[in-house]
Design a protein that fits this description.
It is built from 17 helices and 11 strands. It is an alpha+beta fold and 388 residues long. Helix 13 packs antiparallel against helix 16 and helix 14 crosses helix 15.
Length: 388
Amino acid sequence: MILSPKHLPRLVSTVRLFTNYGLRDFANRQGLLSLNGDGLDDQTTVEGDTRVKATAFRERLVELGPAYIKLGQVLSTRPDLLPKPYIEELVHLQDDVPPMSFDDVEKTIEEELHSRMSKLFESFEAEPLGSASLGQVHAAVLRDGRDVVVKVQRPNLREQLSEDLEYFRELATFLTEHTSAGSRVDLVGVVQQVERALADELDYRTEARNAAQFRLALATFPHILIPRVIDAYTTHRVLTTERIRGVKIGDIPAISRIDYDFGILAEEFSHAYLQQITDSGHFHADPHPGNVFIVLPGRENPRTPAEAVADDRRETVRPGATALVQSENEARAAAIEAAPRDDPKLALIDFGMRWRRTTAMPPQRRWWRLVRRPRNSIAARMFATSRL
């Protein structure tokens, strides 16, 4: 295959992305240098130590747009490929991307929800809680007093990604035929997977359905908290959920490790993931530290399905008017006894990336039933070391 002439400048820019920012060895291992020999370096090569080059590499990915930010997010999980300073810089791409303007945020919300911001919200914080490649999140309070977070998609995103993905598709096919990387990795398959994932992530209604499904599927785990979606405030470009007030799982204060037993959370989280993989076949495919929080007692937070049942004094349950409300009713019906209110909990957010296992796993399902028995830590350790 010959790469389309219109993509040749982008090919050179892609290779230079690595060679000019201190990653020539990485490019060489992937066979990329053979595409254009020694003519890849130019006057834009970054000078300085590894930390300076790593920072410049991250900033360049941001400049190139959402598809390249996604590339950086993937690389941030591969310490086997990149030096540690680069991994530490790329981790910031998980939820620390330059924000879009508040004017764009306001315009998108009003277009999608067909009303003015002042009528939709009691208050809305202009400063985002976090900004990522596809959108950003703002804290707000609804007119009924509920604390929520509102995720708003970046404008013109589909057009930008469409052009980038066309290039990546052709590049993957080209690299498969002409480089050593193509002989080791199914690059075409990787791009196809990214395309499918982005298709889901670009429609926030898919994420809303995923969140409701996970809240139902994990309702039997009393320490796992999945925030509810606010159905009336959710469209394909705006997603509104209950607000989680917690600590990123990688930032737990040392004093909290003394005050609380997080072993219970670790065990329950492991069991929850094993159930997702071996039983339901659907699992959260993006559990990086920016999407997993520890919720400590004493802070106002949403309720788990079990807590919602415990606090509900109604004798009858009203039927769900929408699919999301019906799913919440089912989650409450499936919930077991609520965890003690002074126990910490573990919250999962961002369900735009969900993966589905397509092959049957009968032996592992038998293991799963064994692991789920109370206090069967030996079985749990055996399962953890077995091959899935």
